[in-house]
Amino acid sequence: MYFHCLVRSYGTSIFLVLFVLPLIGLYAHDIQQSIRLPTFADFDINEDFNIDSVDIHSGGDDETGEFAEKLTSTSTLRAVALMRGPQTYGVVRFEQHDSGPTHLTGFVSGLYPMSQHGFHVHQYKVVGGNCESAGEHYNPTNQPHGGPNSPVSHVGDFGNLHSDAKGTSQIDLISDKVSLRGKYSIIGRSVVVHLRPDDLGTGYNQESRKSGNSGGRIACGTINFVSINKS
């Protein structure tokens, strides 16, 4: 009896290894191949575009580069960030007319279903796909962390992304704090999606006033200049 059970168990293991597991691997590969991440070509951006070639922050945060001065004229500016992470990806578009508010549109997928994730502008561009290279929240005015409707907050405190049952968040928001032009332009910086919800600075610890206790970074992208259309 023991021998028959052992043979049956051994035969089942061989069947799983030889037939079932390869099929699962092929299925997973097909799913991976079906996920098409956006590229710069989708937005008419040259593959060799390099924000470092544009003199926008040459004088640091307290001065304005030559390119940023040109952006103060009457025009519509557009920028885009291609979001990448181990499992999370998306596109965030930015558009600003004259010196008015900035309109953000796009999506982020690969989130936990029906969840919230902190969403902010960070100080530096992303280097080598490492979201930690983005630095801390962009905060040139030295304010405590808050939400998009808080009286005081960081420049790029967008609050939370809200995912649907498929783990996708549609982005459509207007910010009168963030700008693509002038002294505190966010072009060449980055936008980051965090693992946990942002408490909007309402927590009772120091981290709340710094980052909203939103945890690790699951996707990020550099905010690249796309176009200027004169009005």
Automatic annotation (TrEMBL):
It comes from the Eukaryota. CDD domains: Cu-Zn_Superoxide_Dismutase. Gene3D superfamilies: Superoxide dismutase, copper/zinc binding domain (2.60.40.200). PROSITE patterns: SOD_CU_ZN_2. The keyword Transit peptide does not apply. It comes from Blomia tropicalis (Mite). Its EC number is 1.15.1.1. Residues 89-223 form the Superoxide dismutase copper/zinc binding domain. Keywords: Copper, Membrane, Metal-binding, Oxidoreductase, Transmembrane, Transmembrane helix, Zinc. It holds the Pfam family Sod_Cu. It is an enzyme of class 1 (oxidoreductase). Signal peptide: none annotated. It catalyses: 2 superoxide + 2 H(+) = H2O2 + O2. Binds 1 copper ion per subunit. Destroys radicals which are normally produced within the cells and which are toxic to biological systems. This is Superoxide dismutase [Cu-Zn]. GO terms for molecular function: copper ion binding; superoxide dismutase activity.
